[in-house]
């Protein structure tokens, strides 16, 4: 009985036959592709390809991906920022790479901070769901566009609604707690070339307690800041953006920048140092300001030195129509005052909350009244020359003393001449010996009194000669 037997022996094609068949198929496919490319328009081909991809993904994949882009409409996405803060805290063994670095110049041996690099994958487990994060970047095709960063969050299709309703609010709350507990704050400067804020650790030692100012003024500032941060409900109820404007004015060296640092340290807010001179237009200004974060200080120093603000004021002051005080005027280059005011208390002021806007100037009288009114600059603080109480605070801070035989002499002299806290601190730093430092200060003040007296005498002689 013959047994059925099948074998490939004798039926295996030769290598040349295989190559010939492959070449024929390849040539046929190339002809088909050429015909399709010639007959079907490019957009139609892309549409068909995308639909086929969607079909296979929908029917044969069990995964769903959320895409979280860095910008959402006109502002930085709060969801993106929450992920950026939260993800470095859940790094596990499955994470294949991490960014590490430190910008703490005071402690080079400190443990570096962590960040998620492009392409890295981070696994999170939440309520029994396995979630995979990854960071991606699309390079800009034109030099004036930013590289676009975005996160992918992948989950099972069946978990999509739970992720949306439970997980995203969870990471937002976690990120908020992390930010509130931060021990270091950053100062940012805007890089117009790359259209982004660049940061460094803010390590200014100034505190409100060490400021050489009246005790009642210190108490007012602290009370005002505490009231501001605790009144979110109030701002919502009255329909106002949750922000506060401070104008610090006074001669150079009177501590305006130090007070900004003291406020930042007290509030634990990041500082965004805005250089108006580098802003190209109102649209550019809007883009710069809307990329700042909540719980921050927006600082505009020496605003009286900005030609845009002064020129804007001059153009409007010539108009008899007071109702048009904030009308935009054409200035090229640079942003206009009305563009800045629109962010401070206009419609764009609602893009963000819990912000403090601080403006400093050496010459308050040069500023446009439109900038100074309540709702824009809510608190005006004059930073003046040293008085006896300010001198004692500086002596305590720099020399560690509350009283000295030379205190009376210093009090007498600073009532006769103006001396800024910066000038006074320069002499108090000359020696750790209080007597030597105070003698240097007295010598400086005596010389200043003589110079001021000589100037007044010369002025009197000129006036007499005119008469």
TrEMBL record:
<dbReference type="InterPro" id="IPR025753">
    <property type="entry name" value="AAA_N_dom"/>
</dbReference>
<dbReference type="GO" id="GO:0016887">
    <property type="term" value="F:ATP hydrolysis activity"/>
</dbReference>
<dbReference type="Pfam" id="PF25568">
    <property type="entry name" value="AAA_lid_At3g28540"/>
</dbReference>
<feature type="compositionally biased region" description="Basic and acidic residues">
    <location>
        <begin position="318"/>
        <end position="327"/>
    </location>
</feature>
<keyword id="KW-0812">Transmembrane</keyword>
<dbReference type="InterPro" id="IPR003959">
    <property type="entry name" value="ATPase_AAA_core"/>
</dbReference>
<keyword id="KW-0067">ATP-binding</keyword>
<dbReference type="GO" id="GO:0005524">
    <property type="term" value="F:ATP binding"/>
</dbReference>
<dbReference type="InterPro" id="IPR058017">
    <property type="entry name" value="At3g28540-like_C"/>
</dbReference>
<dbReference type="InterPro" id="IPR027417">
    <property type="entry name" value="P-loop_NTPase"/>
</dbReference>
<comment type="similarity">
    <text>Belongs to the AAA ATPase family. BCS1 subfamily.</text>
</comment>
<dbReference type="InterPro" id="IPR050747">
    <property type="entry name" value="Mitochondrial_chaperone_BCS1"/>
</dbReference>
<keyword id="KW-1133">Transmembrane helix</keyword>
<dbReference type="InterPro" id="IPR003960">
    <property type="entry name" value="ATPase_AAA_CS"/>
</dbReference>
<dbReference type="Pfam" id="PF14363">
    <property type="entry name" value="AAA_assoc"/>
</dbReference>
<feature type="domain" description="AAA+ ATPase">
    <location>
        <begin position="242"/>
        <end position="387"/>
    </location>
</feature>
<dbReference type="InterPro" id="IPR003593">
    <property type="entry name" value="AAA+_ATPase"/>
</dbReference>
<keyword id="KW-0460">Magnesium</keyword>
<feature type="region of interest" description="Disordered">
    <location>
        <begin position="311"/>
        <end position="331"/>
    </location>
</feature>
<dbReference type="GO" id="GO:0006950">
    <property type="term" value="P:response to stress"/>
</dbReference>
<keyword id="KW-0547">Nucleotide-binding</keyword>
<protein>
    <recommendedName>
        <fullName>AAA+ ATPase domain-containing protein</fullName>
    </recommendedName>
</protein>
<feature type="transmembrane region" description="Helical">
    <location>
        <begin position="15"/>
        <end position="36"/>
    </location>
</feature>
<dbReference type="Pfam" id="PF00004">
    <property type="entry name" value="AAA"/>
</dbReference>
<keyword id="KW-0378">Hydrolase</keyword>
<keyword id="KW-0472">Membrane</keyword>
């Amino acid at each position: 009985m013959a047994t059925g037997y099948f074998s490939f022996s004798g039926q295996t094609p030769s290598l040349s036959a295989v190559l010939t068949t492959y070449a024929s198929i390849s040539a046929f496919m190339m002809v088909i592709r050429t015909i399709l490319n010639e007959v079907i328009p490019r957009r139609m081909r892309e549409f068909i390809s995308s639909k086929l991809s969607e079909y296979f993904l929908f029917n044969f994949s069990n995964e769903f991906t959320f895409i979280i882009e860095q910008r959402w409409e006109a502002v930085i996405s709060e969801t993106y920022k929450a992920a950026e803060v939260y993800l470095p805290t859940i790094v596990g063994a499955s994470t294949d790479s991490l960014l590490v670095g430190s910008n703490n110049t005071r402690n080079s041996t400190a443990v570096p901070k962590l960040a998620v690099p492009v392409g890295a994958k981070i696994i999170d487990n939440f309520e029994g769901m396995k979630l995979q994060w990854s960071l991606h970047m699309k390079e800009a095709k034109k030099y004036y566009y930013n590289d676009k960063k975005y996160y992918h969050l992948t989950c099972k299709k069946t978990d999509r609604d739970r992720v949306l309703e439970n997980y995203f609010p969870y990471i937002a709350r976690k990120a908020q707690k992390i930010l509130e507990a931060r021990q270091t704050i950053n100062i940012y400067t805007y890089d117009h070339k790359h259209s982004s804020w660049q940061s460094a650790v803010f390590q200014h030692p100034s505190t409100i307690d060490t400021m050489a100012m009246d005790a009642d003024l210190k108490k007012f500032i602290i009370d005002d800041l505490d009231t501001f941060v605790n009144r979110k409900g109030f701002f919502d109820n009255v329909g106002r953006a949750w922000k506060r404007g401070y104008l610090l004015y006074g001669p150079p060296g009177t501590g305006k920048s130090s007070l900004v640092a003291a406020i930042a340290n007290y509030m634990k807010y990041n500082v965004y140092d805005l250089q108006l001179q580098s802003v190209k237009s109102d649209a550019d200004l809007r883009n710069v300001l809307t990329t700042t974060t909540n719980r921050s200080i927006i600082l505009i120093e020496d605003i009286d030195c900005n030609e845009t603000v002064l020129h804007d004021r001059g153009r409007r002051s010539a108009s008899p129509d007071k109702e048009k005080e904030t009308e935009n005027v054409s200035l090229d280059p640079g942003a206009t005052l009305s563009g800045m005011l629109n962010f401070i208390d206009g419609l764009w002021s609602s893009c963000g909350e819990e912000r403090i806007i601080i403006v400093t100037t050496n010459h308050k009288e040069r500023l446009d009244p439109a900038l100074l009114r309540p709702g824009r600059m809510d608190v005006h603080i004059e930073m003046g020359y040293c008085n006896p109480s300010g001198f004692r605070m500086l002596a305590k801070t720099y020399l560690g003393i509350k009283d000295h035989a030379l205190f009376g002499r210093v009090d007498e002299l600073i009532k006769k001449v103006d001396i800024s806290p910066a000038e006074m601190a320069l002499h108090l730093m000359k020696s750790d010996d209080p007597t030597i430092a105070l003698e240097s200060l007295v010598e400086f003040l005596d010389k200043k009194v003589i110079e001021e007296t000589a100037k007044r005498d010369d002025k009197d002689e000129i006036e007499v000669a005119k008469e």
